[in-house]
Amino acid sequence: MKTYYDPEDLKKFGKIGEFQKSMADKFFAYYGEVFKEGALTAREKSLIALAVAHAIQCPYCIDAYTVDSMEKGCDEEQMMEAVHVAAAIRGGASLVHSTQMMNKVKEISI
Amino acid sequence: MKSLKAQNHPLSDTQYELQLLESQETGIPFSEKLAESGLYPLVPTQIEILQINLGKMCNQVCKHCHVDAGPDRKEIMNQETMMECLEVISKHDIGTIDLTGGAPEMNPHFRWFVEEIRRIKPDAKIIVRCNLTIILANPKFHDLPEFFKNHQIEVVSSLPYFTAIKTDSQRGEGVFEKSIKALQMLNAAGYGQENSGLMLNLVYNPAGAFLPGSQEGLEAEFKRRLGSQYSISFNSLFTITNLPISRFLEYLLRSGNYQSYMEKLIEAYNPIAAANVMCRNTISVGWDGYLYDCDFNQMLELRVSCTTSQHIKDWSLESLNNREIVINQHCYGCTAGAGSSCGGATA
Lengths: 110, 347
Fold this sequence. Notes:
The complex is a heterodimer.
Chain A: H1 21-34, H2 42-55, H3 59-71, H4 76-96, H5 98-108
Helix pairs in contact in A: 2-3, 2-4
Chain B: H1 14-22, H2 30-36, E1 49-53, H3 79-91, E2 96-100, H4 110-120, E3 125-129, H5 134-137, H6 144-150, E4 153-158, H7 164-171, H8 175-188, E5 200-204, H9 215-230, E6 237-239, H10 246-255, H11 258-267, H12 271-275, E7 282-285, E8 291-292, H13 295-299, H14 317-321, H15 332-335
Parallel strand pairs in B: 1-2, 1-7, 2-3, 3-4, 4-5, 5-6
Antiparallel strand pairs in B: 7-8
Helix pairs in contact in B: 3-4
GO molecular function (chain A): peroxiredoxin activity
Keywords (chain A): Oxidoreductase, Peroxidase
Protein name (chain A): Alkylhydroperoxidase/carboxymuconolactone decarboxylase family protein
């Protein structure tokens, strides 16, 4: 069955330089730098990545950072809380726009 | 849960296991990878560690156990073989004696054996791989922390996670609670306490088909969680990769993860870890006295290659130092990522 998303394609991510090498090299160097231990631990960064993966609904990223979070010692409860953070921000982003709707309602109402 | 052997499971046949590993579809032979790193044939550096398996009997039946240990396993080392081990220990400059099982403490000659090793080698590092719950399994084991302390034993214990749900899913119902109590008893005896000189190290291995993360990062997290929630302290955390043999192999096959796990191990091959594999400085002794390059080869019944020194009673340091280490596809488990050994990461 043909689908737009194939889990096998995740393994090919490192090969995107085939069509444009210099930009890919710069991207992967940057990517590696971002996920190193820093002011945030690699574990904390993995949980952020997992939450963002859900916010942008990237199936490759969800697979990759579920495994990465588990490898870094996160448990299911922590991972689900990270997803709820993403959901809260996404939901909040919609809801906070309701102030614009409320403003408009008030503007045009007697 | 019964052992694979008690179930008459096909994977309790080591020939079947080896055929399966060798027939793996995407399996680049481990020897080829070693050759690329200039390490083939793999040879020993110097024998520094004698790891002795006192038997397959255990009070636990862990889902990932590469020994296929459990209460239904009756193979344990007898006193005659222990005496042959003592003979080797007394004659050679082997600095570390690493006692494992099953639960080594269940061997009725365990305490005698430890006392004899300490008497013969007062300065040797003696490690006991204690599963923790054995300390609480029977009143006769309650004084183990004091026994370990009196003989200056280094205790190495598995604790796959700092929560009950993940620990119990791998090691059995109620194991986490008992492990915490046992760790508190070891701490009370001075183990893992600063400046006590009594070493308590924990072993983390993933509860599933994924690799262990950074040993340093996991150690910090374990120390934070065990310290704040249970007032437990320990010295170091060793991360160990699950090798695709025995019960873990059974899990991989049953769950459909075998192919992807092997691909992951091969993809994560690290030449630095390969240069530091434990089989280069260790000899593993089986419960029946036969010699192996490592504990995993022991469980696959792959004896050391030097035919003149295959049993502890025929120990020849020269032959063993000049042997070629026996390898197979499961060896990828020790060379993936940061590497894996009985002492944790190697790269």
